[in-house]
Specification:
With 211 residues, the chain is α+β, with helices and mostly antiparallel strands. The chain has 9 helices and 4 strands. It binds glutathione.
């Protein structure tokens, strides 16, 4: 049995889209952030850092979005959400999964939670502004690397595109949203057009514009 602990639009969106791409049965368990449920004793038993998502797969508890995504890609190879192990494409996939989660995803914490990054409250706004500027540069790099390819891995779609789509969504309220980069906007539109993604967005109550 697979259960995904999620909150609409959070990092849990990535494994949620993957589970619908895979088409395997799973249970969704809401972590009610309005009630700070991610910090409840029960949730901390699953993820001691109090972060969303958590995936429980046949009793194994996993946290960290990229790890969950790579686990699902391996567990359901027939869904082809990652290239075959041992191929150069697989290494590219690792590169993108780690880059996206280590670099822009981590930076988004400074954008969304700037108060956690300051000793002096007066610096909060400045920390957020600097995070936004760093995020712009990160999306510029991703855009240059993507070039005119349809997907991050070139001709083949992968879970890395779902992670990028989620990060673009998080950036939709920035002064210069990632969608203003035309090739990123085109990739996001391709992701949003996938039936499994549309179903995920519908279930999470997320309406257009998605990014
Ligand atoms: N590195 C973690 C980060 C997860 C994360 O930051 N999740 C956010 C939601 S997108 C969260 O749980 N925020 C609530 C909090 O920090 O209290 C992952 O990729 O799973």
């Amino acid at each position: 049995m697979i259960a995904l602990y999620y909150y609409p639009g959070n990092a849990s969106l990535v494994p949620h889209m993957m589970l619908r791409e895979i088409g395997t049965p799973f249970e969704l368990r809401l972590v009610d952030r309005a009630q700070n449920a991610q910090s409840s004793p029960d949730y901390l038993k699953l993820n001691p850092s109090g972060r969303i998502p958590v995936l429980v797969d046949d009793g194994q508890v996993l946290y960290e979005t990229a790890a969950i995504a790579m686990h699902l890609a391996d567990r359901f190879p027939q869904a082809e959400l990652a290239p075959a192990i041992g191929t150069p494409e697989r290494s590219e996939f690792y590169k993108w999964m780690i880059h996206l989660s280590n670099t822009p995803q981590a930076e988004f914490r400074a954008w969304f939670y700037p108060h956690q990054h300051v000793a002096d409250e007066a610096a909060t706004e400045s920390v957020k502004t600097a995070a936004g500027q760093r995020l712009n540069r990160m999306f510029d790099v991703i855009s240059r690397e993507l070039g005119d390819k349809p997907w991050l891995l070139g001709e083949r779609f992968s879970a890395a595109d779902l992670l990028l789509f989620t990060l673009m969504r998080w950036g939709r309220g920035m002064p210069r949203p990632p969608r203003t980069l035309p090739n990123l906007a085109a990739l996001a539109a391709r992701v949003a057009a996938r039936p499994a993604v549309q179903e995920t967005l519908r279930v999470e109550g997320i309406e257009a514009p998605f990014v």
